């Protein structure tokens, strides 16, 4: 069941601050112009000089003419805002991350078509010349894995990619799945491909566990990264690190080796988090039946274009606006590995892009003070439209990077890479108890979950769950 997001990006924000007189039209100004590349202007030399005037008090990163200085980005952004009635508190003590580039271009992107050559390269990168067996007919040998199964069925070798052809369906939508099993020297792996619209593929490679061969395994990176409490079974952080048996840096090096094998040369690790693997002992998916089984590290990777990384962010971008839920969507590009001392535990590759034509070589950007003012105003307005008794927002990192946006009502196979500012930190809401005291009811603080995304070019607020 799809959840219905609160859609900030569809609202029209008006630029209202008189204190911004002399700045570029002021703050929040217009309706989101949409993802068309023709909505973005090239920056002129005068605009660049204007953005940099008065930036002398801002540390920024890079040299005297760095992008950070021209946009008036401080090395540390500090701000504290509290509503008059004390129900809203925003505290910013955030490092700023700005790419070390002189300018930011805009690129058109399209879906990367998944063909047989690409599937063969994935198969070879992870499994070499090992045979791939039909997962629907495969039963592990009980003489090796010590379970109570009967003798294994005759193994049927198959070729990954056979699911690309389905004569019973139109070519633009391929519903067939692929499920294979590979016996490696150090264990058994499942190899799955599930379809997306536009001939895309979600690819998952998962190491099976001998003690839970028939169970569905879940690797989750949110346990230790978030301050949110959970009742799922898990060891302490120290014990989880011991079980993983490697350092985060070693996990990153292993991920880099796979990126090289996959020829994803423009990708690099961006986010690493201690993770836990668990399964459910019955089909209810209830907390009571969850069982911990292993730990490792998530290494999430994004591409870099023109020296600017795509910002790593947790959301998938799979929500829809009312009236558009019958249209095919386009989730974000994801390349992720879960790794521990045994090696690869799981790999996820989905929705890869194809970088196409450059639409603007040096796009015009709002200054950081303008972006910060938008963030503060919108968060304050959000707090006025909630039934929470108290909201406490703390920002510890603000990052400028690329994000792919698109228009699902026009084209779900083409979009653009635009620069955006992401605000990372924690969000906590409280409700009043019967005695009038505050009681925390919800808190989220995952380091890679943005609390707000703002288009760096025009100041519109982007809903990352929607993708625009």
Structural write-up:
The structure is a single chain. By secondary structure, this protein is an alpha+beta fold. The chain has two domains: 18-109 and 358-462, no CATH class; 110-356, no CATH class. Helix content is 15%, strand content 35%. The chain contains eight helices and 19 strands. The protein has helices at 45-52, 67-70, 116-127, 142-145, 222-225, 237-244, 248-261, 368-384; strands at 76-82, 88-97, 106-111, 133-134, 178-184, 187-196, 200-207, 218-220, 267-280, 290-305, 308-309, 334-340, 343-350, 353-360, 390-407, 411-432, 438-444, 450-455, 461-462. The strands form two sheets. Strands 4, 5, 6, 7, 8, 9, 10, 11, 12 and 13 form a ten-stranded antiparallel sheet that branches. Strand 16 (411-432) and strand 17 (438-444) form a beta hairpin. It starts with 44 loop residues before the first helix and ends in a 6-residue tail after the last strand. Mean pLDDT is 80; it is low at 1-33, 48-63, 146-151 and 165-175.
């Amino acid at each position: 069941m799809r959840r219905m997001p609160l859609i900030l990006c569809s609202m029209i924000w008006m630029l209202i601050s008189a204190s911004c007189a002399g700045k570029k039209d002021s703050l929040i100004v217009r309706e989101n112009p949409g993802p068309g590349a023709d909505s973005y202007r090239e920056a002129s030399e005068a605009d660049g000089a204007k953005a940099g005037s008065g930036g002398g008090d801002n540390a920024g990163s890079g040299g005297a003419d760095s992008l950070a200085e021209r946009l008036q980005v401080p090395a540390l952004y500090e701000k504290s805002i509290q509503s008059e009635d004390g129900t809203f508190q925003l505290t910013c003590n955030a490092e700023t991350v700005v790419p070390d580039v002189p300018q930011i271009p805009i690129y058109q992107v399209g879906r990367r078509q998944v063909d047989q050559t690409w599937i063969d390269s994935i198969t070879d990168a992870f499994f070499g010349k090992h045979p791939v067996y039909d997962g629907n007919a495969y039963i592990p040998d009980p003489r090796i894995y010590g379970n109570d199964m009967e003798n294994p069925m005759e193994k049927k070798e198959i070729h990954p990619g056979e699911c690309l052809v389905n004569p019973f369906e139109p070519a633009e939508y391929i519903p067939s799945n692929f499920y294979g099993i590979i016996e490696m020297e150090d264990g058994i792996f499942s190899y799955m491909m599930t379809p997306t619209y536009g001939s895309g593929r979600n690819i998952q490679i998962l190491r099976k566990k001998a003690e839970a061969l028939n169970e569905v395994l879940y690797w989750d990176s949110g346990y230790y990264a978030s301050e949110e409490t959970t009742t799922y079974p898990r060891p302490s952080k120290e014990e989880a690190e011991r079980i993983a048996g490697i350092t985060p840096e070693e996990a990153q090096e292993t991920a880099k080796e796979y990126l090289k094998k996959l020829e994803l040369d423009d990708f690099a690790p961006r986010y690493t988090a201690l993770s836990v693997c668990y399964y459910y002992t019955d089909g209810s998916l209830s907390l009571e039946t969850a069982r911990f089984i292993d730990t490792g590290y998530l290494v999430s990777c994004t591409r870099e274009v023109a020296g600017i990384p795509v910002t790593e962010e947790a959301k998938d971008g799979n929500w829809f606006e009312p009236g558009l839920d019958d249209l095919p969507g386009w989730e974000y590009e994801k390349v992720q590995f879960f790794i521990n001392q045994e090696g690869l535990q799981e790999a996820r590759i989905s929705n890869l892009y194809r970088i196409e034509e450059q639409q603007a070589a040096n796009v015009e950007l709002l200054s950081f003070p303008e972006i910060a003012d938008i963030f503060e105003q919108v968060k304050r307005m959000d707090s006025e439209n909630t039934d929470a008794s108290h909201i406490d927002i703390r920002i510890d990192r603000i990052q400028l990077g690329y994000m792919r946006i698109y228009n699902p009502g026009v084209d779900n196979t083409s979009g653009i890479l635009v620069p955006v500012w992401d605000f990372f930190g924690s969000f906590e809401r409280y409700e009043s108890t019967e005695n009038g005291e505050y009681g925390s009811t919800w808190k989220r603080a995952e380091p890679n979950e943005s609390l707000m995304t703002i288009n760096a070019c025009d100041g519109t607020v982007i809903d990352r769950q929607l993708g625009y």
